[in-house]
Design brief:
single chain, 421 residues, alpha/beta, Rossmann fold, 2 domains, eight-stranded mixed beta sheet, five-stranded parallel beta sheet, elongated, binds cytidine-5'-triphosphate
């Protein structure tokens, strides 16, 4: 399995790193523990030595350790650098490329993926310098496991506690799987897939807003994009709930299909299940308006024109964005935007307005893509930037969207593991 360098820095959560080391070993990985000087104030190096059965690195200048320039040789052999807990000081050093001890030198020297689990007092975590440093690291591809909220060692209640060891181990596993896939490893499907243990809800298709028992207001969405996303999430091992408006498509094997008709039905179905989900992907073309007074009986024609009053539907994505659990980024939210002009500008606006993590924007004015066809070209917009996905099958587009979603999920503990803990 993998060789993982586990950096332990000087925070009260250092004792939890012992459990993280054990969790990684239980999954079959080799762990090299690297402790900063302040970490040794919290936990003795012997503890890590006993657990990892390897010498623990505590000093860059130990005689005998430099024959092969140890930080360089480790940097080039590890599959992952995991730092838990990562203090404000370490985050600052990493962000600025300082290399004044073994761990910070290793960070600068390695090309392996890096995962950090910050832990510190709430005020420190929220300090603009720390926020900026974390943003800088994330922009450079460092993955971050968000700290949890609760009682902190300093007596405060707030955000800053080191994420639970299982969540850190799960994030490390996911990163290793993604790395293996990038290196061309055969794509594991089902239980061994990159989304195993994740619960994902996908909405798809149009909604039908009834005018009377035989007529409705609908739209041209075929549901293909949402169904492709559900199928790809199943293939990656996720547990998938597909909330679908009326379509002619067969549900992908293995999804839990919830068939709905109107925007109101979809709202009820989604909100009732949102608390169990790690991610919700709103690919459905939900009606923004519904007839204000649908008739109970078929409306008979009269002599003159007919005016129908439409009223706004509830914004499902908006309501998901306001869930209290969103403070922990749960569920991760993916919205869709069908635009006919200024695609990126509108999508960026939606990202902020609806407090979602990813917006997948279609330019539905272009022929041969978007609604009711097999091909699509999209622009994926997130806080990390804008990614153009050129014209390809909706399945291939779905894979690109899920790649981005998986990267966001690394920072979010799975609901299933939280429920077990
Ligand atoms: N959506 C929703 N509930 C609604 C309407 C839309 O959850 N009642 C979701 C869609 O599934 C999609 C996203 O919101 O993921 C689309 O955002 P929205 O701002 O409604 O897009 P448009 O309808 O394209 O916006 P506008 O009318 O502002 O162009």
């Amino acid at each position: 399995m993998a060789l993982i360098a586990l950096g332990v820095t000087g925070g009260i959560g250092a004792y939890k790193a012992v459990e993280i080391a054990r969790g990684l070993q239980n999954n079959g990985h080799e762990v090299i523990a690297i402790m900063t000087r302040s970490a040794t104030q919290f936990v003795g190096p012997l503890t890590f030595e006993a657990i990892t059965r390897r010498e623990v690195i505590t000093d860059q200048w130990k005689a005998g350790a430099n024959a092969d320039i140890e930080h360089i040789s480790i940097a080039s052999t590890i599959d992952l650098l995991l730092v838990a807990p990562a203090t404000a000081n370490t985050v600052g050093k990493f962000a600025n490329g300082l290399a004044d001890d073994f761990l910070s030198s290793l960070f600068v020297a390695t090309k392996a993926p890096v995962l950090i689990a910050p832990a510190m007092n709430t005020n420190m975590f929220e300090h603009p310098a720390v926020v900026k440093n974390l943003e800088t690291l994330m922009a450079r591809g460092v993955h971050v496991v968000d700290p949890g909220s609760g009682y902190l060692a300093c007596g405060w209640i707030g955000k800053g506690r080191l994420a639970e060891p299982e969540a850190v181990v799960a994030a490390a596993e996911q990163l290793l799987r993604i790395k293996a896939l990038a290196l061309g490893a055969p794509k594991p499907a089902g239980e061994g897939g990159t989304m195993a243990g994740r619960r994902v809800m996908v909405t798809a298709g149009p909604t039908y807003e009834d005018l009377d028992p035989v007529r409705f207001v609908g739209n041209r969405s075929s549901g293909r994009m949402g169904y492709a996303l559900a199928a790809e999430a199943i293939r990656r091992g996720a547990t998938v709930t597909l909330v679908s408006g009326p379509t002619h498509l067969a549900a992908p094997h293995g999804v839990d299909l919830i068939a709905v008709r109107s925007a109101a039905d979809m709202h009820t179905a989604v909100m009732a299940r949102a608390a169990e989900q790690d991610a919700v992907i709103m690919a459905a073309a939900v009606a923004d308006y519904t007839p204000a007074n649908p008739a109970g009986q078929k409306v008979k024609k009269g002599e003159g024109d007919l005016t129908i009053t439409l009223q706004r539907t509830k914004d499902i994505l908006g309501d998901l964005g306001r869930l209290p659990s969103r403070a922990q980024r749960l569920p991760v939210l993916v919205g869709f935007a069908a635009e006919t002009q200024d695609v990126v500008a509108y999508a960026t606006g939606k990202l902020e307005k609806k407090a979602v993590d990813l917006v997948v924007a279609n330019d539905v004015s272009r022929a041969g893509m978007g609604f009711d066809v097999d091909l699509n070209a999209v622009t994926i917009v997130s806080a990390d930037g804008v990614e153009d996905v050129p014209l390809q099958s909706k399945s291939a587009v779905a894979a690109r969207v899920l790649d981005r979603l998986e990267q966001l999920l690394i920072a979010v503990p799975s609901r299933a593991s939280a429920a077990k803990a």
